[in-house]
Design brief:
This protein is of the alpha+beta class. The protein has one domain (about 10-80): Winged helix-like DNA-binding domain superfamily/Winged helix DNA-binding domain (Arc Repressor Mutant, subunit A), CATH 1.10.10.10. About 40% of the residues lie in helices and about 25% in strands. It contains four helices and three strands; from the N terminus they run αβααββα. The chain has helices at about 15-25, 30-35, 40-50, 85, and strands at about 25-30, 55-60, 70-75. A three-stranded antiparallel β-sheet has the order 1-3-2. Strand 2 and strand 3 form a beta hairpin. Helix 1 (about 15-25) packs across helix 3 (about 40-50). The longest helix has 13 residues, at about 15-25.
Length: about 90
């Protein structure tokens, strides 16, 4: 069963970190998540955000060595999950 979180403060800490990064930067990759935030399983964090009502697009890309990576692009955050509205 999918768990929907009532508001931003109910989200687990890593999901909060990813959501803040997405709001501030618009997108995130697994490399960014690992290096900047020390988050190892970005896809799991994104799934939790999707289950909670966020809209995140996935875009496959390839680096200069031909390695595929996925870029997650934030499209919509429900008001109840927006940390900017929680702080206000």
């Amino acid at each position: 069963m999918k768990k929907r979180y009532a508001d931003f403060e109910d989200l687990p800490p890593q999901e909060q970190t990813v959501l803040i990064h997405l709001i501030e930067n618009g997108s995130i990759t697994a490399g960014e998540a690992q290096i900047v935030h020390r988050i190892r399983s970005l896809s799991r964090r994104i799934t939790t955000l999707l289950d909670s009502g966020c809209v995140v697009n996935k875009e496959d890309r390839w680096d200069m060595a031909g390695q595929r990576y996925r870029k997650y692009i934030l499209q919509h955050v429900p008001e109840r999950l927006n940390p900017e509205l929680v702080a206000a």
